[in-house]
Write a structure and sequence with these properties.
With about 140 residues, the chain is mainly α. About 75% of the residues lie in helices and about 10% in strands. It is rod-shaped, with a radius of gyration of 47 Å.
Length: about 140
């Protein structure tokens, strides 16, 4: 990778040097509010290209950051929605368990009341066969 980068920089440097040598004409630069001194056209082209590349890279970085923030906001919104649904589901489960435990308590209380109101059942433990008298 480093080797490819060195070759790319060498090609760019060679192109810039060729641009300066081929365009050796001196031109005046008007900057709207001021006048820059006359400079080599090739050098002016290289400066403009470098400035354009720099501004383009900064704008691309800014746009990437904006897109990255949008992706993060979207991901967080989805997670927020999922957590809200999970919270709602948990609240329903808690309510269901609460109602079930209240119903169980009501059943236990009713059975306790019924046991207190009903007379105890007596069980005849005597053997009825032994008490029979045979008549002859």
């Amino acid at each position: 990778m480093r080797f490819v980068l060195m070759i790319l920089l060498f090609v760019i440097f060679g192109y810039s040097l060729g641009l300066v040598l081929v365009n050796s004409k001196e031109v005046a630069v008007n900057l709207l509010f001021t006048q820059a001194p006359e400079m080599n056209l090739g050098l002016l082209l290289i400066l403009c290209i470098a400035l354009g590349v720099l501004i383009g890279m900064l704008l691309a970085l800014l746009m990437f950051k904006v897109l990255q923030n949008k992706w993060e906001i979207g991901r967080l919104n989805k997670e927020n929605k999922r957590l809200k649904d999970e919270l709602t589901q948990a609240a329903v489960e808690i309510e269901r368990h609460s109602l079930a435990s209240q119903a169980d308590k009501a059943v236990f209380v009713d059975s306790d009341l019924n046991a207190q109101q009903a007379p105890p059942e007596t069980v005849d433990t005597s053997n009825s066969d032994n008490n029979k008298k045979t008549i002859r």
